[in-house]
Every structure is written in C-alpha cells, then in structure tokens.
Amino acid sequence: MVIPTKPHATLLASPGLGHLIPMVELANRLTAHHNFHVTIFVVTMEPGPNKPNLLPNQPNTLKPLYDLVVLPYVDSSAHMGPSDKIMTRLVIMMRGYVSSLRSELGSMEQNPTLLVVDLFGTEFLTLADEFNMIKYVYIPSNAWFLAQTVCVPLLDKQVKHEGPLIIPGCKRVEYDDILDPVFDPENKDYDEYVRIALDIGTADGVLVNTWEDLEPTTLFSFKNNKVLKEIFNKPVYPVGPLVRPVRPECLGEELSEWLNKQPKESVLYVSFGSGGTLSSQQTIELALGLEISQQRFIWVVRPPIEHDGAGALFHAMDGQDHMISQYLPPGFMTRTRNLGKVIPMWAPQMEILAHPSVGGFLSHCGWNSTLESLVNGVPIIAWPLYAEQNMNAALMDEEVGVAVRPKVLPTKVIVGREEIKKLINKIMVDDEGIKIRERVKEVQGYAKRALTTEGSTY
Ligand code: UDP
C-alpha cells in the first residue's frame, strides 16, 4: 500500500478558458503554497487532441506542478435543443462526463482527499460522496455573484422578476445587471441555475476568486448576516486574485518593440475575452470610436456575429485571421497604422496588461480579465456582453470605483462612436480618469497583499 505523503486534490474544470485558467491557478497555489498533490481533469468542447496552448500559464520547458488528465471527448449534442442557451449547453456537456470521472477516480490507487468543481460541475459533487472525499465548489468569479446565485432558489418561479434583486447584507443587483436566466422561468437555463444554486449548498464550502479588501461587505455578510446565513450557511473562502503569472516572452518581438516605444500608460487594450463577439455595426462603431479618440490602442478583433455576444464560445473561428480587415471600416487599418495595433482573434492579454505603456482596458469584464486588470493597476471601460459580466461591470464601477460604463448596456443598443470616444477620453485623458487610475493602483496594492502569507487568500 502506498502511504500518501500529501493530500491529493482533484480539480474539475468545465469547458472554456475562462474556467480552465483560474482552475489551473488554483492548482498552482495548492501545490506551491499548501503542499498538495493536484490532478486537474479537463472537459473539452471538441473532439481531437487537447491543444497544449490551452494551458498558457507555465513556461513549456517547466514540468507542470500538477497532473493533467483530459477526459476523452463525449458528444452530448443529441441532448441539446436549438434554443438552449449557454448555461444549459455547458451543463449538458458536463453531464456527459460524470461516468468518465467516476472511472478515473475508481482507477486511482487511493481515493483522493478533495474534489473541487466549478459552477457547471456541481452535479459531480455526488462523486465525492461515493469516493469519500471532501467537496468544494470553486466560483471563478466574485462573492457578490455567489450571493446572487444562492438567493435565486428563493425567487418565485410564478412571478416574473421585474425589480432589483435584494440580497441580504449585500449590494442589491439592479434589474439590468441580474443574470439573464432569472428573467425567464420558462427557459431551461432558469431550472439549471436554481439546481446549481441548491447543489452549491451541498458542498463542504465554497472558494471564490476574490479577496477580503475587494468585497469586504459581501464576505462579511456570508459570515455574519443572519438572514443570508439562513439561506446559505457554508463557509465561503476568498482565494483570489488567482491570475496567470506574466511571461514577458509571450508578447513576441514585434508587439514588445511597439509597446516599448509608446509613452507610459498611453495605450488602451481592447478585448472581449475568450468568447466575446460584437455585431458588424458595433464593430464599425468601435473602430471609428477608437480612431476619433486618437488614443493609442491594441485591439483584439474577431469576425462579427449578430445577436450573440458569446459568439466565439460556440462558433469555430479558426483560420479567419486574414479576413479581419474586411469587417473594419474602409481605410481604418491604414489611417490608424501609427496609432494602434489590430490583433486578430487572440492576444497575450496578461503580458499586454502588465506592460507599463498600457493605461486602460476596454473589457467585456469576464472575471479573469477584470482581475488581470486590477492586479496590473489598469482602469477599465466596462463593456459587458453575457454571463455575469453585467454584475462584474457594476461592481467595478459602483463599488470598487475603477471603471466607467456606457450609458446603456452594450447588449441593448449599439454604442456609437462619439460615446466610445468620450469613454476612452474619460479613462485615458480626463481628470476623472486620473482619480480612477489612483484608485486602481490602490486596489492593485491590496490584491498583492491578499496573496502574502498575512493575506486573506493564504
Ligand atoms: N485571453 C487572452 N487573450 C485573448 C482573450 C482572452 O489571453 O485574446 C485570456 C484572458 O487573459 C483571460 C481569459 O482568456 O485570462 C478570459 O477569461 P475571462 O473570464 O475574462 O472571460 P471569458 O473568456 O470567460 O468570457
């Protein structure tokens, strides 16, 4: 019999880089700081070998600190309907892998100590019971989002939700910022969201990618607010900010040289995460807004998709790099040649944000992107598109004070070039921007402190 020298944590990541990246960083933290042996199980959305660049956190020459097991692809498309939305689709995909994870766990010489799943893997928690493991849910988002989630089962399905969402002891969620499924009890996403919320309550505790100084009120309420504790009484641990380390060599020579030549904090980085897409008209307006602002920029451009802000999540976009300029206004690339850089599809985001020439981030406010902005002290123009991004944007704007937002949600209207120019100037030039910049530097300091041995994460 092998005597274990370390506790063994098994982590299960649902599809999408936004879920995998924070899980990998949790693994790194558990191995490097807490002497765990970690196995990450990864679920893929497509058949074929897992691309090694899915895990961009480690220099390729270094042996990863954890074991990685890619579960063989399971095709769940027969269980999905054409009207199924993101949450339902992700959950259905995950469901297909329960038996593979069971056999993986069953084939281990000893039961692992701990199972950690993310929001879309809560159905796997019962496996922890089968294998006598302790079980945690890791929310790769903020505590306020967790608070909204655990309160959703209390909403009456019969009553259409029409006002702000009141969460005991926490900032209320304004109507516009509430997660979509809450509005549509007829939709399968609603049932899945409620089930997920109830599943979270069966875990031994919840890890959240946040820290005490970022969300003091919400974290305090999870511990101390009587009403919230009646709704949800499991321990909530802030373990963030868990973000990828910077690897300057990922910038590449050309981008690195260009950035080195720009003045300090003069470049706006524009990107909508791994899944975000804009409509063709919005792409044009954004291009023209960047151009008339006359601020330097790096823009990660994807082919437009109409009526689906999460377009890149489910549409294959490979091989379209060379077509990008056809979606931009005629002459844009030439006119902005000396002002900015257009990068098709995917950029080394963490490295760009860490560069001293970068002074603003126009972001969809996925939680990883938001954290990456904060740890690099970069103010945000919030442009939320789907999932809990409206909440993240509201939190950064109203609560943390490091972001500005368009007047109306970008998913409801086309944000015009003049408004875009104003938002860019607010962050990059105006006095208001200077204050926001000071504030984000302060938050950056708190973020660093959270990760020290005295910090809330440790
Ligand atoms: N990302 C990147 N380059 C890109 C787009 C995204 O490196 O061009 C990374 C980004 O740094 C972040 C992750 O992909 O770590 C996206 O996660 P996030 O939670 O921000 O958004 P999601 O993709 O889940 O909507």
TrEMBL record:
Query: What are the record keywords, sorted?
Result: Glycosyltransferase, Transferase
Q: What is its EC number?
A: 2.4.1.-
Alphabetized CDD domains for the sequence = GT1_Gtf-like
Which Gene3D superfamilies does the record associate with it? Glycogen Phosphorylase B (3.40.50.2000)
> Do you know which InterPro entries this protein is assigned to?
UDP_glucos_trans, UDP_glycos_trans_CS
EC supergroup of this enzyme: transferase
Instruction: Give start-end of the signal peptide.
Output: none
One GO MF annotation is:
UDP-glycosyltransferase activity
* Keyword presence, Zinc: no
Give yes or no: UniProt keyword Transferase: yes
Q: Name one Pfam family in it.
A: UDPGT
* Homology family: Belongs to the UDP-glycosyltransferase family.
Protein name in UniProt: Glycosyltransferase
Can you name the source organism? Beta vulgaris subsp. vulgaris
